[in-house]
Design brief:
The structure holds 2 protein chains of 2 kinds. By secondary structure, chain A is mostly helical. Chain A contains 14 helices and no strands. Chain A is globular and about 70 Å long. The two termini of chain A are 38 Å apart. By secondary structure, chain B is of the alpha+beta class. Helix content of chain B is 23%, strand content 18%. Chain B contains 6 helices and 12 strands. In chain B, the strands form 5 sheets. In chain B, strands 10-1-12-11 form a 4-stranded mixed beta sheet. Chain B has a two-stranded antiparallel ribbon with strand order 2-3. Chain B has a two-stranded antiparallel ribbon with strand order 4-5. Classes of the chains: A mainly alpha, B alpha+beta.
């Protein structure tokens, strides 16, 4: 109960932070960030690829249930699709407030540029978002119909969400599930393409040695699976019935996450080693920033300490049979990936592209140093709080981890 | 080809295929017919030995284009040559290089930045740009700057600063373009006449080149063999930055 109160207090307080940040963005200063033209992408872009990775990852995990028919993960199927929707919304909120003219977002559909990986990414996740909503609605439809007979305010809310549907029969459920299967099957290549597209967005830039590697699209997808899977473990442990109801599934999912994490670590090592041997000055400058720059602790403490230390202790030792340890290990991965994302975006931009550029003019917008401004932190916190609130509402309104029992009198 | 009854589905298929082919052919034909031929290839030759590092070009550019703080269409770097074993700086003014293969153009998600077909100048369509800053990340020469909406404290009130860029004469208003857009050097194309010609005698010449007291910045048509830039490129050995990226910059340096 205490935990729930803290959860709602943080979430609702964060909504105020979010509202304040929006007000500042549109009425006080169009860009109160500490970004500049040397480091034009910062905290919010990192947060965006973090959330978008969680979305793609948890969606792909849900496909294990709805495309590949792995029944043992069934209890998290709907939670996974819900997580994919919420994190995608958070990602779009973040990037929408980061770019200069969000009101022109539709330009990307009108002024088509097929050579832009960013355009492809947006087209892909637009379709992906529609599919997610369709899939999720069909997943929830029958339970919403059942719930609309509940007394109190839950009934009417469920009736609205069910869009007036009344059919709660088994045949309708079978029909729903066949729609879900089609949507989920189309979603798998889409999720891979749009998140691979996020990696490609960075990877295609020959101007940035730190990003310009063919491994980037692949590493993004593997990272998405590791972080998305880990986020799902944490979510299913605290959501509705909680970890006690899903002990075995959490342990199984922990093994899966471990596999993805090891693959991700392997790719990262490969990338760093090959970069070091290549000894490209731009790459060396960036990797030095990662391991020994002003934010060295992000790599050593957050990425290695949490992402390889805590997580491997919990997931790769005999502790892995205890669902509580699995949850701790996965929480460590969820935290570590914040560091992973920050260390993708910032060191790639920071080194000067032309020597002496940052000394040529003395201007806070032309510098390699970047630390997010108060506005950036508050907006980030606010957006995370929006996520908490949507999850909280989902926990109250949506029967995500179990199916409602159909009343006997219905046919 | 046998003429016989065609099913409705087949008819639709054929009609669709025909329409697509027709559209592609027509689009290509229209594009070919309406694409103007390149008249000029504007470029610069910058003689670092003539540059004294006075930064008059930086100031002239800021005044000409009325750029806000944080936006510099040209800067002067003052780094010693690596490996030269002395600390004598090489002054290097660095506008946009208006590359022949600009890496910033293909990445734009909305085609807001493009290379003009007639004279090779790389421009930004402020009304189309969404401010994602992808082009800044893609440019290997740090030639692009984002307009964060900052203003000089002592400059006129917002709305009274008007930039002549692209001959659009936009008043500076918070939240409306070019605030929230990526901005860059345009070779002062607003000083071109209707035919797209510059005229040095009339003062219609890029501000940095016009103001340079040592005549270190030479500007002209690289395609015109008689121009100053083409002549000097024939006579002297010039270098371009980061040739290995294949960007083919239109700005050359003499060391």
């Amino acid at each position: 109960m205490m935990l729930k109160r803290v959860f709602w207090a943080v979430g609702l307080f964060g909504l105020f932070a979010f509202a304040w940040a929006i007000y500042v963005r549109f009425f006080v200063h169009p860009d109160a960030s500490n970004l500049g033209s040397v480091v034009p992408w910062g905290l919010h872009v990192a947060q965006y690829i973090y959330f978008v990775g969680l979305s793609a990852g948890s969606f792909l995990i849900s496909s294990l249930v709805y495309v590949f028919g792995m029944k043992r993960f069934e209890p998290i199927g709907r939670l996974a699709v819900f997580t994919a929707i919420v994190t995608l919304i958070l990602a779009l909120l973040t990037i929408g407030l980061d770019i200069g003219h969000i009101e022109r977002f539709w330009h990307v559909f009108i002024f088509v540029n097929p050579t832009s990986p960013m355009a492809w990414m947006i087209w892909m996740y637009s379709i992906y978002m529609v599919l997610l909503f369709v899939e999720f609605w069909f997943l929830m439809r029958r339970d919403l119909v059942v719930a609309s007979r509940q007394p109190g305010w839950r009934g009417p809310v469920s009736r609205i969400l069910a869009l007036g549907g009344r059919d709660a029969s088994d045949t309708s459920l079978a029909r729903d599930m066949s729609v879900v299967k089609v949507a989920a099957t189309i979603g798998v290549p889409l999720a891979i393409m749009f998140h691979g597209g996020v990696g490609a967005l960075f990877g295609v830039l020959a101007s940035r040695d730190y990003w310009h590697t063919p491994l980037f699209p692949v590493i993004f997808i593997v990272g998405a699976l590791a972080s998305g899977g880990a986020a799902l473990v944490v979510a299913s442990a605290i959501f509705q019935e909680g970890w006690k109801a899903h002990r075995e599934m959490i342990v199984d999912l922990g093994r899966l996450v471990l596999g993805f994490l090891l693959l991700d670590i392997g790719f990262q090592i490969s990338e760093i080693l090959i970069g070091l041997y290549g000894a490209n000055p731009g790459y060396l400058a960036a990797i030095s920033l990662v391991v020994a720059g002003p934010y060295w602790f992000v790599f050593w403490v957050v990425q290695l300490g949490f992402g390889m230390g805590v997580s491997l202790i919990c997931l790769a030792t005999p502790l892995r049979r205890d669902p509580r340890a699995v949850v701790v290990g996965c929480a460590a991965i969820v935290i570590a990936f914040v560091g992973v994302r920050l260390n993708i975006v910032l060191p790639g931009m920071s080194p000067e592209e032309v020597r002496g550029l940052t000394e040529a003019v003395s201007d806070p917008r032309v510098t390699s140093d970047y630390f997010p401004s108060a506005w950036e932190w508050i907006l980030s916190f606010g957006i995370a709080a929006v996520g908490l609130v949507i999850f909280g509402l989902g926990e109250i309104f949506l029967p995500l981890s179990h199916h409602l029992t159909r009343p006997a009198e219905q046919g | 080809m046998a003429i016989g009854p065609v099913s409705r589905r087949e008819l639709f298929k054929r009609a669709a295929a025909g329409a697509v082919t027709g559209a592609v052919v027509a689009h290509t034909a229209v594009a070919d017919a309406t694409t103007p031929v390149r008249k000029h290839h504007w470029g610069m030759v910058i003689d670092t030995r003539r540059c004294v590092g006075c930064e008059a070009c930086v100031i002239a550019c800021k005044i000409e284009n009325q750029t806000p703080p944080g936006v510099y269409y040209t800067v002067v770097t003052k780094e010693p040559l690596p490996g030269a074993h002395n600390d004598r700086p090489v002054f290097m003014t660095k506008p946009c290089f208006h590359c022949d293969e600009p890496p910033c153009v293909p990445v734009c998600p909305v085609n807001a930045t493009y290379k003009r077909k007639t004279d090779g100048i790389v421009v930004v369509d402020y009304d189309r740009c969404i401010g994602c800053r992808y082009c800044i990340a893609a440019c290997p020469y740090a030639a692009r700057y984002y307009d964060f909406g900052d203003d000089y404290e002592l400059s006129p009130l917002a709305g009274e600063t008007v930039s002549p860029e692209y001959r659009q004469y936009r008043p500076r208003v918070p939240g409306s373009s070019p605030v929230g857009n990526v901005r860059k050097c345009t070779f002062c194309l607003h000083l071109q006449d209707e035919q797209g010609e510059y005229d040095r005698e009339e003062g219609r010449w890029p501000a940095c080149a016009k103001t340079c007291p040592g005549h270190a910045i030479m500007f002209g048509d690289l395609d015109d063999p008689e121009s100053e830039v083409a002549t000097i490129l024939r006579e002297r050995n010039a270098v371009r930055l980061k040739e290995e990226l294949g960007t083919e910059p239109s700005v050359f340096y003499l060391l």
